[in-house]
């Protein structure tokens, strides 16, 4: 097995730092799946868990100056590594002004993900900071435990308002109750509400817009004004808004009625999905 990648694009280095920071906030331990055309970061643990789950995909694209990998075999051309997310973030966050960022699977008496940050000094000289992150190489018989999430067709999909605004609202609601009701419809409206014995709060958003596929995938006789809802733990929703560090070009909220809240952030070659099960 071999894996070596190099990033020299400063904008993509910064984005990779943001991605690593987000993963560290949302998943203490993660599984990194190295494929020919992408890197995928997923959760550990049983799939039946009721906890919120992360899936992040970084496409190979043109942003990587170098991307070489050889999997277990030609038929199974993938590598699965388990690592502590915070270790990866600590290693890459020093690369903000780096000339390059290299990531390589190495063997330093045990399997490691070696992160090398090349920094240029004012005198023109460069020095390299090397971080060896211990990883666990997962055997093939475990791979089926870490599939890419199969996305169920949502009952409604709506573009999210400004994430900073949502974070502020969810923070206030989290101080007042344990769960929040999220509603949306096919006319670009979205509501967040919380109700307890002593207080009731509701925030309204309109003119958010819906992806075209959302409007095309519902029955024609459905009222566009009818709200689809899901109730989730405030703690889990707040964890997402506090943890995410990406500045997405697209941000979506997908709701499977009373079953799942599915949040999606996309920026260039990076997509981040967060799945919060209903209460």
User: Gap between N and C termini, in Å?
Assistant: 42 Å
Shape: globular
Whole-number radius of gyration? 21 Å
Secondary-structure-based class equals alpha+beta
Q: State the total count of DSSP E strands.
A: 18
In helices, the fraction of residues equals 10-25%
Number of helices: 5
Question: How are helices and strands ordered from N to C?
Answer: EHEEEEEHEEEEEHEEEHEHEEE
Strand order of the largest sheet: 10-6-2-3-4-18-17-16-11
List unreliable stretches of 5+ residues.
Answer: none
Which range does the strand content fall in?
Answer: 35-45%
The biggest beta sheet is recorded as: 9 strands, antiparallel
Mean pLDDT: 91
Topology:
Layout lengths: L1 E6 L2 H17 L2 E6 L3 E6 L9 E7 L6 E5 L8 E6 H8 L7 E8 L3 E10 L5 E9 L1 E2 L18 E4 L3 H12 L4 E6 L5 E6 L4 E6 L6 H5 L11 E6 H10 L6 E7 L3 E8 L2 E8 L2
Antiparallel strand pairs: 1-5, 1-7, 2-3, 2-6, 3-4, 4-18, 6-10, 7-8, 8-9, 11-16, 12-13, 12-15, 13-14, 16-17, 17-18
Helix pairs in contact: 1-2, 1-5, 3-5
Detailed description of the structure:
The structure is a single chain. The strands form 3 sheets. Strands 10-6-2-3-4-18-17-16-11 form a 9-stranded antiparallel β-sheet. Strands 5-1-7-8-9 form a 5-stranded antiparallel β-sheet. Strands 14-13-12-15 form a 4-stranded antiparallel β-sheet. The longest helix is centred in the N-terminal third of the chain and has 17 residues, at 10-26. Helix 1 (10-26) packs antiparallel against helix 2 (85-92). It has 279 residues and is α+β, with helices and mostly antiparallel strands. The protein has helices at 10-26, 85-92, 163-174, 212-216, 234-243, and strands at 2-7, 29-34, 38-43, 53-59, 66-70, 79-84, 100-107, 111-120, 126-134, 136-137, 156-159, 179-184, 190-195, 200-205, 228-233, 250-256, 260-267, 270-277.
């Amino acid at each position: 097995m071999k894996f070596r990648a190099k990033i020299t694009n400063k904008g993509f280095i910064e984005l990779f730092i943001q991605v690593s920071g987000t993963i560290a906030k949302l998943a203490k331990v993660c599984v990194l799946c190295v494929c020919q055309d992408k890197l995928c970061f997923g959760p550990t643990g049983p799939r039946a868990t009721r906890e919120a789950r992360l899936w992040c995909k970084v496409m190979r694209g043109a942003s990587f100056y170098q991307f070489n990998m050889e999997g277990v075999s030609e038929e199974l051309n993938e590598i699965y590594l388990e690592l502590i997310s915070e270790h990866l973030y600590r290693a890459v966050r020093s690369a903000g002004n780096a000339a390059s960022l290299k990531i390589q699977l190495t063997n330093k008496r045990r399997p490691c993900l070696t992160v090398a940050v090349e920094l240029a000094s004012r005198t023109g000289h460069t020095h390299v900071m090397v971080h060896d992150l211990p990883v666990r190489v997962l055997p093939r018989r475990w791979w089926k435990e870490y599939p890419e999430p199969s996305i169920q067709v949502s009952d409604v999909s709506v573009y999210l308002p400004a994430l900073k605004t949502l974070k502020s609202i969810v923070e206030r609601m989290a101080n007042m109750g344990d769960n929040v009701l999220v509603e949306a419809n096919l006319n670009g409206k979205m509501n967040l509400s919380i109700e307890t014995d002593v207080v009731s709060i509701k925030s309204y958003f309109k003119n958010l817009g819906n992806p075209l596929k959302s409007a095309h995938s519902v029955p024609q006789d459905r009222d566009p004004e009818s709200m689809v809802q899901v109730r989730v733990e405030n703690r889990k929703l707040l964890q997402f808004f506090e943890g995410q560090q990406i500045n997405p070009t697209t941000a979506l909220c997908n709701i499977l009625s009373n079953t799942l809240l599915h949040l999606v952030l996309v920026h260039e070659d990076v997509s981040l999905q967060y799945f919060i099960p209903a209460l």
